[in-house]
Every structure is written in C-alpha cells, then in structure tokens.
Amino acid sequence: MSSKTDVPVSPAPSEVGADLYFRTQLDQGNFLIQRCTACARSVFYPRMICPHCGDDHLEWYAPSGKGQVYSTTVVRRKAEHGGDYNVALIDLQEGVRMMSRVENVEPGAVKIGLAVKAKVVDAEGGKLVIFSPAEGQQ
Ligand SMILES: [Zn+2]
C-alpha cells in the first residue's frame, strides 16, 4: 500500500472555500491538510483562518498519513446493513485530529494508541480518508 506524500500542491484560489478545495483534491485521491505559514502549525479541518494564531495564510500539503488512535468507538449495526463498524478520532503525526474509521481490523480490536496509516478510498457520495493498522501491528 503506497500513499502519496509528494503531491504537487497549488495554492487554493481565495474564492474557493477551503472545504471545497479539500473535497476536490480528495476526489482526485489526494489527502491534503493545511499548514499556517505564520506559525507553522498544521490545521484540520479545512479553514480560511489559522485557529492557532489568526493568520489567513494557510498552505496545503500532503501529510505523512501516519497517525495514532486517540479514541475509538464501535458502532453497532445489523449484519444485513454491513455489520458493526469503527469510528475513531485519529491524531496525525502532523498534530491534527480527525474523525475517521479504522478498517482491516475487527471494530472492537481498535485500541487507543494503535499506530495507523491513512488511505483514500471510494465511498458512497465521494472519496473518504480512512485508516488501517500501520505495518508491524496486528
Ligand atoms: Zn497560525
């Protein structure tokens, strides 16, 4: 499983909302987050203004995709609707937290602190960033 880490990134046109830019990139298979050029901290979810320092110069870049499970929940669902699934908050190495889910492992086996890796998958209504256990974890 390879992930894109050196996607050429062009600045978001100011007239395009940050959310829309994120979605457009994601639909092309590119998972991008933002970084503030003033305070150098990473930003997610997409915004126009840095939540850390208030600066409005945010640049897009491809994160490593590496993260750790911060919290995890099993959502119960009937087998005929696809069975139970996992919902997790993931802390990316870059210092941002995002809600997603961890796949390729039993929903209840996802533990806090588990090392995970992001990937972009097709889902209903467009592409989605999900996570699976990083190599070397069961
Ligand atoms: Zn900032």
UniProtKB/TrEMBL annotation:
Pfam families: OB_ChsH2_C, zf-ChsH2. It comes from the Bacteria. Residues 60-119 form the ChsH2 C-terminal OB-fold domain. Residues 25-57 form the ChsH2 rubredoxin-like zinc ribbon domain. This is Zn-ribbon domain-containing OB-fold protein.
